[in-house]
Predict the structure.
Amino acid sequence: MAIILIAPVTTQTKNGYPAEVTGIDLADPHCLRGTINTYGAVKIAMKWTLSGLCRGTGEGCNLNITTPEMADVVDVAKRLGAGLKVTDSSFVPVRRIHAVAG
């Protein structure tokens, strides 16, 4: 399934690594996509749940999702139907989203 790209949102991991969320995958429970920068400036591609839990690594790579920017990303992902357990990879939940002028 294609990943919906978003404007990069910066945050940190539990261990203090700089992290960037750059996409939302509607077909995976680990729906947030992005990277973390480890010491030595190595960028590692990562997947996180809506609660910030990282896939396949220790707790130190979990996201800090308490910032307003990350709360917005999680809210948008939920509105799109991301983070749901999906058994059929061709299934995409249908949601109507209304734009609100701000």
Summary: Helices lie at 68-80. The chain has a mean pLDDT of 83. The first strand starts at residue 4 and ends at 12.
